[in-house]
Specification:
Oligomer: single chain
Helix content: 25-40%
Radius of gyration: 16 Å
Number of strands: 4
Shape: globular
Order of helices and strands: EHEHHHHEEH
Structural class: alpha+beta
Number of helices: 6
Number of domains: 2
Length: 137
């Protein structure tokens, strides 16, 4: 996992969330190099004012146990407040990618706030890349 921010802030966040062995899989990108190279969506218009944002949030809330899961996630963020190294990074949208060497197996650019990749599709892609006996993509 790669995130904007400084390595020490990432370590602090992992401690706050109780994520074990976080340093084995969390990498910091304080200069925004990877975000820029991947041309991820950014800007306040995409982050907050994109019409997809309320629909993404609605979809998450109305899934089975959606409100329960939202409360669990928000509860973990209580007391956590992290500011990106650069002001404009606050308006970066993320993405989810699975690579095998230089080959991109899965690419999802978050369209707006809350519009994340289907985690089951991500895991299925990653598993099949590392286990040739897994079902086809």
């Amino acid at each position: 996992m790669i995130s904007i921010g400084k390595p020490e802030v990432g370590a602090s966040l992992c401690d706050h969330l109780g994520v074990k062995d976080c340093s084995n899989f969390l990498f910091a990108d304080p200069e925004n190099k990877l975000y820029n190279d991947l041309e991820l969506n950014k800007g306040v218009d995409v982050t907050f004012f994109n019409p997809a944002t309320p629909f993404a949030i609605k979809d998450r809330l109305f899934k089975k146990d959606g409100m329960k899961r939202l409360n669990e996630v928000l509860g973990k963020w209580s007391g956590a407040f992290y500011i990106p190294p650069k002001r404009e990074q606050a308006f970066n949208q993320g993405g989810t990618f699975v690579f095998q060497g230089e080959r991109t197996l899965f690419a999802h650019y978050d369209e707006s706030t809350g519009a994340h990749a289907d985690i089951e599709a991500v895991v299925k892609t990653a598993r099949s890349a590392f286990n040739p006996l897994s079902p086809a993509l």
